Amino acid sequence: MYGTSERLLRLLSLLQARRDWPGADLAARLEVDVRTIRRDVERLRSLGYPVHATPGVAGGYRLGAGAALPPLLLDDDEAVAVAVGLRTAASGTVSGIEETSVRALAKLEQVLPARLRPQVGALQAATVSLSGAGPTVDASVLTAIATACRDHERLRFAYGDRAGASTERSVEPLRLVHTGRRWYLVAFDLDRADWRTFRVDRIAGVPVTGFRFTPREPPAPDLAEYVSHQISTAPYPHRLVLRVAAPAAALARRIPPTAGTVEEIDEHSCRVRTGSSNLDAVPYHLAQLGFDFVVEEAPPGFVEQLREVAERFARAAAPG
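Now predict its structure.
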């Protein structure tokens, strides 16, 4: 059983962690009755926290936006994660938040417990950011999409394809996926009645939110693997499946998720699915894997092309 002060802090932490909380669920979490929750909510309101209540049997509580940002309650892991995220915010994949991140980090470090500072400091001392020329995404766009994913709100936006043509899309957003270089949105496209993967840097402006929706069954249990397949295999006219004589973990270090998907067969072998718009370059990329492989599926003529390349290499390595 929590004491009053401890219970208030715990209640505030729960309200910050989720958008809506039924009163009965809060009472069960805190091991009190619903009347105690009502009294604790009034205490939070007296401290300046805008807690909104919905009456009725299905009623509950929501922490709303106030005139000023209320104090956030973070546990040790969350505090370190926030500090790490702020330190890497200037990596170039999210634009326009570098200076803001520095200010926020300064405030966080001022109140960071002494026991956590070595963890954050060690990461800063050991990490160097390598700037790249990849596409950047405005922070306001990411925030709008993430909020719509959380609140199950439809989105409308203009989307540019590879050729630069723009189309209007109306979607039910599911999740943002970050590959380390690009941001992708997995969403159900209402006009096409199917799941789609959108590159966020191709979304023009901040998406417009619409009605709330009931979430659908995701297109795959592992969305990271799903996105990897969508961007590394599905868009290409030529697709290949290889059985590689190497552990999946070893090959995953060589093949980024944007280049192919790796699935384990057993502890000594794995299967790779990839795609390409130019088959002529594929044999030379495969030669760099560093492991033996067998072609399970490939476009017509590809195996013969491999043989020709192998014979060319063999002649080049022959003495005299």
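The longest helix spans residues 302-317.
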